[in-house]
Amino acid sequence: MGTLGLEKKYEDQVLKCSRCGFCRVICPTFEAKDFLESYGARGRMMQLKAVDEGKIQPDQSFVDRIFTCTLCSACEQKCPSKVDYVKTMEAARAGLVKLGFAPPDFAEFSEMTLEKGNVLGQDNARRMRWAAKLENIKVNEPAEVLFFVGCNIMRPRVRPMATATAKALQAANVDFAVMGEDEWCCGLVFINTGHLDVAREFAKHNIELIEKINPQRIITICPGCAQAIRHYKHLTDGWKPGIPITHAVEYIAELLDQGKFTFTKEFEGGSKIAYHDPCELGRQMGVFDAPRKVLNAIPGLEWVELENNKALSHCCGGGSGLQGIDNELAREVAHFRLKEVQDAGADVIVTSCPTCRGNFLDTIKQNSLSIKVMDIHEVLAQALE
Ligand code: SF4
Ligand code: SF4
């Protein structure tokens, strides 16, 4: 075992990298850092190998390179050696955290999130504000479907996504429940950044509530939450929910297929929409068709594909907590994607992830771009009203 304490399966991945550099053509941080080798997948792998073998000592510059990867997994699409890059990077981060290296302020951030139950450090009671005008929302009662809402719901701009999802579920007569103010952070940012002990605390708490609700399915509006809950089995003693854990848009597409509800209202959101595949929902969870099916089902909605779409989608820059680690880099990456929207002649970008939405919004504001951002749930909300 080397300096970073990597398990053999990850050491094997490091050795598998042949340094061919095919990953460099698609890496958003490599591009945003003016093609600086150490900010691409190949460069990160080479540094990782040298540190793990004890040839160089880990320092803050190495920590910066390892933690500024968005874990978008685009490099894996181009890798002829099939390196399991993202999992290896997460393992390296966990090793660094154990050695006492982490991005600045992370200890404080972990403490605050554990104390408050959400990454925004707000009163957890605010989690239910999105449901203020809705009736008959079950909270922590047994139900067929658990709607895990996620920390982003603390932001007023995200509330319409949850409201729209609940309205669609109600329109389809789905028996669902939420965890309300007892819901805690899914823990993804701590899984991504190697703070596994912190993530485990969130997993344990949320699993207790999930078991109380005893759902047949869990849905989320953030792909990251679905990914984190799927990961709970690795954080606990093999918790096996044995039920699908999916993004809400997949479930809504299924309900549409089953004829449980239809969209009746004409869409008025914008003149030309472009759909952005979030890395976690698309490349990592393999969900490409469901959001397209939902968009196609909305009357009057016209949309286009971006040049880099589906498995080759360009990252939004917000993945893996990059906004908290290097916000300038996060926005630079988002800016590349927004240029693609302009090149496609679109003026609205629709995504299925609150993190993408937030990073795009901030980047648009900073660069005074004439592009509107919407989450797919907001789009369907307009078609349901
Ligand atoms: S996961 Fe994404 S950001 Fe990280 S090295 Fe691969 S392509 Fe670059
Ligand atoms: S494409 Fe794969 S094998 Fe080639 S340098 Fe990148 S990570 Fe290594």
How would you describe the overall organization of this protein?
The protein is built from 18 helices and nine strands. The N and C termini lie far apart (58 Å). Strand 2 (145-148), helix 8 (159-171) and strand 3 (176-178) form a beta-alpha-beta unit. It folds into three domains: 8-98, Fumarate Reductase Iron-sulfur Protein, Chain B, domain 2 (Orthogonal Bundle), CATH 1.10.1060; 106-257, 3-Layer(aba) Sandwich (Rossmann fold), CATH 3.40.50; 273-384, Rossmann fold (3-Layer(aba) Sandwich), CATH 3.40.50. The protein is an alpha/beta fold and 385 residues long. The chain has helices spanning 8-16, 28-32, 41-52, 60-67, 74-78, 85-98, 106-116, 159-171, 188-192, 196-213, 223-235, 248-257, 280-284, 289-297, 322-325, 327-343, 354-366, 376-384, and strands at 138-139, 145-148, 176-178, 217-220, 245-247, 273-275, 303-305, 348-351, 372-375. The longest helix is centred in the middle third of the chain and has 18 residues, at 196-213. Residues 17-23, 41-42, 45, 75, 78-79, 81, 83, 85 line the site of one iron/sulfur cluster.
